[in-house]
From TrEMBL:
<keyword id="KW-0648">Protein biosynthesis</keyword>
<dbReference type="InterPro" id="IPR004527">
    <property type="entry name" value="Glu-tRNA-ligase_bac/mito"/>
</dbReference>
<dbReference type="InterPro" id="IPR002547">
    <property type="entry name" value="tRNA-bd_dom"/>
</dbReference>
<feature type="region of interest" description="Disordered">
    <location>
        <begin position="618"/>
        <end position="637"/>
    </location>
</feature>
<protein>
    <recommendedName>
        <fullName>glutamate--tRNA ligase</fullName>
        <ecNumber>6.1.1.17</ecNumber>
    </recommendedName>
</protein>
<dbReference type="GO" id="GO:0004818">
    <property type="term" value="F:glutamate-tRNA ligase activity"/>
</dbReference>
<dbReference type="InterPro" id="IPR001412">
    <property type="entry name" value="aa-tRNA-synth_I_CS"/>
</dbReference>
<dbReference type="GO" id="GO:0008270">
    <property type="term" value="F:zinc ion binding"/>
</dbReference>
<feature type="region of interest" description="Disordered">
    <location>
        <begin position="1"/>
        <end position="50"/>
    </location>
</feature>
<dbReference type="InterPro" id="IPR020058">
    <property type="entry name" value="Glu/Gln-tRNA-synth_Ib_cat-dom"/>
</dbReference>
<dbReference type="InterPro" id="IPR014729">
    <property type="entry name" value="Rossmann-like_a/b/a_fold"/>
</dbReference>
<feature type="domain" description="TRNA-binding">
    <location>
        <begin position="659"/>
        <end position="762"/>
    </location>
</feature>
<dbReference type="InterPro" id="IPR020751">
    <property type="entry name" value="aa-tRNA-synth_I_codon-bd_sub2"/>
</dbReference>
<comment type="similarity">
    <text>Belongs to the class-I aminoacyl-tRNA synthetase family. Glutamate--tRNA ligase type 1 subfamily.</text>
</comment>
<dbReference type="InterPro" id="IPR049940">
    <property type="entry name" value="GluQ/Sye"/>
</dbReference>
<dbReference type="GO" id="GO:0006424">
    <property type="term" value="P:glutamyl-tRNA aminoacylation"/>
</dbReference>
<keyword id="KW-0547">Nucleotide-binding</keyword>
Amino acid sequence: GRGGGKVGGGGGGCPPRSPPSPTALSATVESDAEVTTDAGRSDDGDDDDVEIVFPLAGRKVEDCPPRMRFAPSPTGSLHVGGARTALYNWLVAKKGQLDFPGEDGAFLLRVEDTDLARSTRESEESVLSDLRWLGLDWDEGPDMPGAKYGPYRQSERSSLYSKIAERLIDEGKAYPCFCTQEELDEMKARQEAEGIPPRYDGTWRDADPEKVAEKMAEGAPFTVRFKVPPGSRVVIDDAVRGTVSWDAESTVGDFILLRSSGVPVYNFCVAVDDASMGVTTVVRAEEHLTNTLRQGLILDALGAPRPRYAHCSLILGEDKQKLSKRHGATSCNQFRLDGFLPDAMINYLALLGWNDGTDNEIFARDELIEAFAVDRVVKSPSIFDMDKLRWVNSQHLKMKSIEEVADLVREQMNMVGLLNEGDEGIEVRNFVFAATALAKQMMETTKDAALNAQTVLGYGLPDTFDALPDGEAKEMIKGGNFYPIAQTLIGDFESDALPKPDPADPLAPFLEDISKPIVEDNQVGGNAYSYPKAYKVHMKSMSKALGVKGKHLFHPLRLALTGEMSGQDVTKQMALIAMASTEGTPVNSDAAGLVTMEQRIEKLKVFCDSIPEEFRAPKAKEEKKKGGEEKADATAAAQAAAAAAPVAADPLDSYDGPPITALDIRVGRVTRVWEHEEADKLFCEEVDVGEDEPRTIASGLRPYMSKEDIEGRLVLVLCNLKTRKMVGFPSHGMVLCASNADHTEVKFVSPPVDAKVGERVTVPGISFEGEDGAPYAENKVGKKKVFEKLAPHLVTDDNGTAEFMGRPFLTSAGVCTSPIPGGNVA
């Protein structure tokens, strides 16, 4: 227990006492659920050696350089809510250091570890490690013993808390309370019976000093209570929630500062630490708002200026419940393991309750520091949207080069066991580079690249036709083109006629520009072999020999070679398989599920043998009947069949997605084009869409077109997209293009030359007039993912006409077309 002439259980000069009773440990009426069970003991000398200094005393907080703190409890991992709190404090501190160079502004890390039963150094290091991963470096903290406001662990500050409690008692602002648990329970029961909210009734508030001295001499356990001034109110101007006030006397009563064990309660520690560390602004979660009342009273009693407060709303899951493990990953370390980038996490966390007043959603770290202001944090709860986080991460990935991303992809490959342990040679670097390049445009996390490599190295074609699930692949095979194409492929492979990647230059398919014209002799620039071009030449010959082209050739080829109906460029996939199949490969073939080219061909043979005879050739056209009577009979039969046949179903009847009228697609003219200085795949364009000023739009067309191909052209522009910064360039809209299945060819969807700049593109049979036909607002298009839901239905037909559900894109001058038939429009 605690007794004698000094307050507190630590430091020199405290006489040893018997252990406190269990009742004394909890001798309080009001709830102190956040208070810990043991404060630890400091061995730093007598309490009289502790100097009490409040750095901001006598100064206006708003005039001081920001000193921000993040104060985690080391009882687990750093989760999303804590990471956002740390980020907001870090951003304010970093901006302050720019505005007040050379002054005392800082982001400090304070560990609130007084709950020794649950706090561990392992958890502390885990939290610090997560902060380092996020790039939230601190200026003062527990790993910096020389920092002037330390120590930065509460368990090492016991002497300070005891010293200040003594001072408050000496000044008549606190007092010892000797109430037993039984007395407190009786007090609570009496108040509840009278309909009064339970709180301490002040039994020892103004006790006779002689009675107090008598109890002290007996060694009776006591707590130290704060003496709430009569009629006191606490009012704060919260940066997020506005003015908040409490009637202190009626709300809390005289609350505990130190328990009978000498353990300081949470609010006492926080108030003392904020004052003694010179904290200027406290940004924290709204669940701490009620703590501000007690902390404000303590700060006022100490004569220390209150910091400014900003209480941020909770982060909720998509079910509008408080974010927790049941919503999936919430710890920062799990996001790291799942392949998210620190800069993307910082970007997304900043948006959970804040915006800069524009439609911009992608920020670099320096841009966030410049733009962030606590005054723009909103009070409404934020919804954690994993899809949105993945999208933000994908945008940051696209800003990075393959080389910058490759090391992160390698980490993911090691996590899934894709690479042999200990391999460090050029083969590892080449394979990781190739796998990263293959997945670069589609991946949302670095883990996607590792998983994509596993998919590519595997082979999803089942053993038999009957084992193939009903769907697109089975219907394609039933069309009859697959079998003869597969047989030709098998023969070409076994006769060594099928082009193969060059083992001497395994990265060539991932580096060379294959948009140049095909060279018929398989040679590029003299004797330089190009596997992608040789493959194209071979497929062109196969097309002629079999009389099959377009998707009727390429879809069967893709399924036969990869076992999938869709994916990245086939030649790049084959090159990756070749790299994984060579002698001395760095790939763990068992973990990767590797199926070599030889094994694929054998599996393909077995599969083809199981295809029913009726599906082994394209459907033959019926021979024309000869003779007048036969022709007449055929005509009559055809007319009768037509009359009896039901009208073909309109595909729009079964469509249940957003209306095509939601999109504001207009005719535009590109008036200016230049290369983005920092992104090697982006063009920057000015496009006239009939508005007062041209739109600025960034497009990833540099791998496919030259500036001369673009400037002056009529194009289609999706106009109702919010402005987004693409590597710092404000892009307001999207130029629509068509691409083939492999995304190796990309061409504009072009309106007729006589189309009017600014006119809206329509679709026959659908009204674009009135309120129902009006395009959605930019906000709604983004939040509802309208374009993403419509995109699968925006295609080009066999003639290259752009269409939606079989209906062409139409302007006043006619339909819109692309040189790419059977493509996707985006």
